Amino acid sequence: KKVVTWLRNRGYNVLEVRDRGHFDLRVEGILDAFDSYDVRYCVFLACEVGGAKFIESSKQDVQVGIISSNVRMYQSVIPWLTARNIPFVFSSSYLQGTHNGYGSVKRLGESWIRALGGLGKVLRLWNVYGAENVGLKSHVLSDWAQQCAEGGKAESLTDGWEERQFTHADDAAAALGIAMEKHWEMDEVSDVSSGDWISMRDAAGVLSAAAGSGGWECGVSFNAKASPPREKLSPHLNGTLHKYWKPEIPLQEGCRRLIEEYRASGREGHKQEL
Predict the structure, then answer these.
(1) What pLDDT score was predicted for residue 49?
(2) How many structural domains are present in the chain?
(3) pLDDT on residue 267
(4) Predicted pLDDT at 48
(5) Domain for residue 274, yes or no?
(6) CA 24 to mean position of chain CA atoms
(7) Is there a domain that residue 241 lies in?
(8) In this structure, are residues 263 and 151 in contact, taking their beta carbons and an 8 Å threshold?
(9) Is residue 19 part of a domain?
(10) 186: closest CA among 87, 68, 103, 258?
(11) Which residues are 123's β-sheet partners?
């Protein structure tokens, strides 16, 4: 939703695939419905993704589902775009190197796009957060913010010592929009990140401070369980994209917006997908 809003606010005409109930991109030929339109560009976000509790799940059916659904989407969407010579940007992840279903399908998507000779560009997103429906696929800051909005406290699934770099959904949407506008200048792969490492314990402190600035309580308690280890990578923030884009929303301001949105919704959260 954030990308659509960014584009429409700048005067672009946008055809939107909202969700699987709207268009199931796993179905070959489903995009033929757009052949009557003059499609000039595609922002390819529709992948089977989620937060750590989803993509790092030990359940076999979850991992198989991630691989199966994403491969089927690639087989439907990428040939459709290439057959019509439509340039596009593909949202990948800094976790593309991880040894699970999610990492495997992101690597596959990147490899396929590299083989197209510039028609597709890759943006690796780093821990994008924003209001979303809370459930199996939601992300940690959204989970905590929703719990705090409803009960004034949140519970972490881990001990909180793992570190992340966060990017607000509005900043990520701007990066994707700028990647479209500067497509033929863009590097093959670009990172979208704040560049700032923070432990989840410190992120909880930022969330608590953001809540306090609005007169709300938000205390996060931590589990004894350590998060699965991840290789600590560094984003490349000196590419072509970064001549035109910089993140504008600090983590505390993003957390304040997040809690406000959940409090305003009056329920478990409303979907604001990228």
Answers:
(1) 54
(2) 1
(3) 47
(4) 56
(5) no
(6) 19
(7) yes
(8) no
(9) yes
(10) 87
(11) 91, 190
Classify residue 103 by burial, with Cβ atoms within 10 Å: 0-12, 13-18, 19+. Answer: middle
| DSSP count for the chain of H helices, then E strands | 9, 10
Q: Which two tokens stand for residue 84?
A: 């019509």
d(CA 181, CA 24): 27
* Residue indicated by tokens 């478990």: 268
CATH code: domain of residue 153:
3.40.50.720
**Which residue stretches of the chain have pLDDT < 50?**
50-51, 53-55, 267-274
At which residue do the structure tokens 């949105």 appear?
261
Average pLDDT score, the chain: 88
The tokens 């700048």 sit on which residue? Answer: 10
Q: Is 116 a domain residue?
A: yes
pLDDT of residue 135: 64
Domain that holds residue 206: 2-227+235-265
Give the pLDDT confidence of 200-245 residue by residue, as tens digits.
999 999 999 999 998 889 999 999 999 887 778 889 999 999 999 9
Task: Give CA–CA dist 273/22, Å, rounded.
Answer: 14
Q: Extract the tokens encoding 66.
A: 């991630």
Query: DSSP per residue over 105-118, as a string?
Result: HHHHHHHHHHTTTT
Among residues 25, 15, 75, 81, the alpha carbon closest in space to that of 48 is found at 25
Distance CA 221, CA 168 (A): 23
Per the confidence metrics, is the pTM higher than 0.90? no
Neighbours of 268 (CB within 10 A): 14
One-letter amino acid for residue 122 of the chain: V
